[in-house]
Amino acid sequence: MNKVLVIGASGTVGTELVKLLKAKGQPVAEATSKKDLKQGQVHLNLLNQDGIEDAFENVDRVFLLSPPGHTNQDKLLLPLIEMAKSKKVKKVVLMTAMGANAVESASLRIAEIQLEKSGLNYNIIRPNWFMQNFNSYWIQGINNDGKIYLPVAKAKGSFIDARDIAAVAAELLVSDKFNNQDFDLTGSDVINHDQVAEILSITTGRKISYQDIEPAAMRAGLIGAGLPKDYAEFMLVILDFFKQGYAERTTDAIEKITGRKPISFKKYAEDYKSSWIK
Questions:
Q1: 118-158, pLDDT tens digit by residue?
Q2: Rounded CA gap, 84 and 92, in Å?
Q3: Which CATH number covers residue 118?
Q4: What is the spatial distance between Cα 178 and Cα 182, in angstroms, rounded to a whole number?
Q5: Against a cut of 0.90, is the pTM above it?
């Protein structure tokens, strides 16, 4: 049995995806930029494409995503799509982001179009904002100050649990039922950040609140955390899309593909509550 190559295998979605594929008895090649490899890992550096051909050896299905922190996502993804094409893999599942197809010249959309035109069997999944952002990217404000600091006013989002994204990707990688389709992935709860804070407060027993901030303050925080300036600006752009209401939409894609409802925000908060309890 040939393997599934998982790009971003140690990331938020990739970690869960690897677990699910292995549970299905599927051999997995876990891509890593490290050269000191553990069993099951293959070396692949997306920034310079080092190891790309070896990583695709004996692979017939591939999960692709662009790593966070980079705005030139098409430059990182196109060589992988071309390699998949040259190796005649059976299926590629590409994860981008909800709204990536709104503008044809957008970096992620360029990669999507390349995959659509490749002749390969594919799926494109576009998840909404991750629930897991609250126990990763936004956690410092929560744990230090009891605050969720974001410049999104009262806008709502249909936040999605990364475990649901992984479940969708796993099903699409092992099945050809939905070949050559794209899916926007959302949760079923449409809530604003005041409601997020309330759920986190109830779950943890702490007082957590949301504070709307100016984009300039967000920019300073992102750059202070070490993000490149161009990526910080990209984050401000997509946060403004959130503020304008583009993250409120819901779809039935998770239930359609996995046969179950999306994980609720309350369930997410309960499962990750140790992240916010001092």
A1: 999 999 999 999 999 999 999 999 999 999 999 999 999 99
A2: 8
A3: 3.40.50.720
A4: 9
A5: yes
